[in-house]
Amino acid sequence: MRAFALGLLSAFGLSFSAAAEYPKPPLEAYGALPQIQSAEISPDGTKVAVIANLPTGTRLIVFETDGSITHQFGVEESKARGISFYDNEHVIMRASETTRTFGFRGEYEYSGAFSINLETLDVVQLLSRTKGMFPAQSGLGWIAGRGAKPGEVLMPAWMGRRGSDPNFDLLTARLGSARGSRYVRGTPDTRDWFVGGGGNVLARKRYNNRSNLFSIQWRNGNGWETIFEQKTEIPQMWVMGVMPDESGLVFIGDGDRSYGAPMKLGAGGEISGPIIPPHEREIDTVYLDSNRKFLGVRYAGLTPEYYFLDEKLQASFDSVLARLPDATVYLDSWSDDRSAILYRAFSPQVGDVWLVHKTESDDLKLLARRRPGIPVEADGVMLSVEYKARDDLKIQAILTFPPDYDASAQKTYPTIVLPHGGPASYDRFDYDWMAQYFANRGYLVVQPNFRGSTGFGQKFEDAGRGEWGGKMQDDITDAIAALAKANMVDPNQVCIVGASYGGYAALAGAVFTPELYKCVIAIAPVSDLNLMIATTKKERGSNHWAVSYWEDVMAEGDARRTKLKAISPVHFAENAAAPILLLHGDDDTVVPFNQSKIMERALKRAGKPVELVRLKGEDHGLSIASTRLQTLQAMDAFIAEHLPITE
Q: Helix 545-555 to helix 529-540 angle, to the nearest 10 degrees?
């Protein structure tokens, strides 16, 4: 471990000694989707279902934990989003496709759930032939819990005719049938349902965008009793799930969604807790059973920590982490008796892998590699660094060096700054395909967790409100200065690359600090903040909480046109000095393609070098194999031209 002037630098798993000549896998190995995209272990622990991205297309594959394949289904027609087991014979796959519906504005992700019978091989789209469903559905396919009878699931859906204000009802669906029926009637402002065992509906969450009224209602016979109510422009309470004994709901709030410990909202409205010990880290993920009963949490951080009410899950995680002390370990799913538990892990020693822990024998078995075409010797050296921003706020960043990194050589590298999206997100010690590709090709990749990032406490996240183009951007600039001072970065050899909010940050860097960057790549960026808010109002309504959210994070509620114009890169195109590459999916329903189109026009009018690559059929997440590969190919050629590696 070596201390630099900018802060404490720590290695993730690898020593600082120079590596031998390392392999350089083809670009296609990095640009491909992970071979094993998602996985789930069966209730009896004998089978694993995976969504696999193969050269022949996307497949749903089921195999025994010894590795032998038992079933394989083609799922190329839609974007597979996740899988789960209902029982040992039924797999449920969630999928979506970008679509339009006549009479409704804009595109949206239409989603659904498919029931797959492993004995009969029948595949059925649940609810697809249900009468009375609203024509436009977003979020369909989500399962709230199990029904009262075997083979039943409870699924929310919008119900009503075109032109009506639809209700968000809870429907019952039978595995193997495309027809569903109403189980419990909802309201137009119902947002979530909570279910106990035996199909017992416990509660529902409501939020009215017009009145800004947020409420939780507990079911009382055939009626509803309001047990929590709050006026708020942006819902603040995160209702995580159901108490294990069904006596109430588990939540974090009010106004403190991501920090602290979970509390209990009782059936009578009483608040108590915390139900687990408080932790200095914020909660990143909640673990629930098939009826959303609370089992435990994963805490945020550069590497995750866990706390489980379920002692068997906690003991398993502790055992796995003891054997992989340098790994980032994610607990994925488990058998009913906890005898077999599925993990995903990443470390420079083992790579990016799926593992099965047999708890009775304490055996940890490699199940599959997510990227078998990339050997671990090709992975970059990952370090963390803490530096001070210009106002002395401490910022953490992830650095990924080429595999032959030698700290004693005091070498500077051509550098790619890669700010994350969100901005309510953060970078951690995990496999990042962009960072790993460019590190393998000889670049240092810097991923600063600027203020406004999650993962470092509520105060740190709140420090980013209203700081788009301001202090958040300064934090990225200050990372370059700190690393240059430590003789790790040549400040004259830096490009900035980002997607979503990171794309905005890349464009902001191009026009507000043009002297810093030799090239700029923005993927699905926001370029005009006023237009972004106007589009949200048009598609969701001016009273929607999403409008208030964007106004809050962009401008801390002061969303005057002049203020947002002053931080919108599209209005400062004449300042750009470096060549700019824009890449954007034309099926993006989060940041419209037009945000890149208007930036291209502004740059061309200003006589600036710019190229726009339209990713046909791609969404916001680069989830299609062909266009993800197209993206990396375009980035690689652009950076090789403007920031070449020279020996």
A: 170
What 3-state DSSP class applies to 105?
Answer: coil
Q: How far apart are CA 453 and CA 468, in angstroms?
A: 12
pLDDT over 50 (residue 9): no
Q: Tell me how far CA of residue 579 lies from CA of 438, 473, 514, in angstroms.
A: 19, 19, 10
Q: How many CB atoms lie within 10 A of CB 644?
A: 10
Given a cut of 50, whether residue 574 has pLDDT beyond it is yes
SS3 label, residue 93? strand
Q: For 194-253, what is each residue's pLDDT tens digit?
A: 999 889 999 999 999 889 899 999 999 889 999 999 998 888 788 999 999 999 999 987
Number of H helices, E strands in the chain: 11, 37
Sheet holding 180-184, edge to edge: 145-146, 152-159, 167-174, 180-184
DSSP letter at 592 equals -
The 3-state DSSP class for residue 573 equals helix
Indicate the Cα dihedral angle 9, 10, 14, 17, nearest 10°.
40
Upper half-sphere CA count for residue 18 (Cβ side, 13 Å): 7
- Look up residue 33 and give its DSSP letter: P
Q: How far apart are CA 631 and CA 647, in angstroms?
A: 26
∠ CA 425-426-432, nearest 5°, is: 115
Query: What are the tokens at 79?
Result: 């974007």
The helix (H) or strand (E) run that includes residue 80 is: strand 79-87
**Residue 238, both tokens:** 């995160």
* Angle of CA points 204, 190, 175, to nearest 5°: 75
Across-strand partners of 586?
Answer: none
Q: Which two tokens stand for residue 527?
A: 């370029």
Res. 109 pLDDT band, cuts 50 70 90: low
Instruction: Give the integer Cα–Cα distance in Å for 449 and 446.
Output: 10
Cross-strand pairs, 114? 93, 125
The DSSP code sequence of 176-221 is T-S-EEEEE---TTEEEEEE-GGG-EEEEEEEETTTTEEEEEEEET
Residue 253: which of 240, 268, 242, 244 has the closest Cα? 240
Q: Which amino acid is at 210?
A: R
Of 420, 333, 383, nearest to 43 by C-alpha is 333
Distance of CA 194 to the CA centre of its chain: 23
Are 576 and 602 in contact, with CB atoms under 8 Å apart? Answer: no
The H or E element spanning position 108 is strand 108-117
CB atoms under 10 Å from CB of 637, counted, come to 12
Q: Is the dihedral of CA 179, 184, 187, 192 positive or negative?
A: negative
* CA–CA separation, 288 and 331 (whole Å): 12
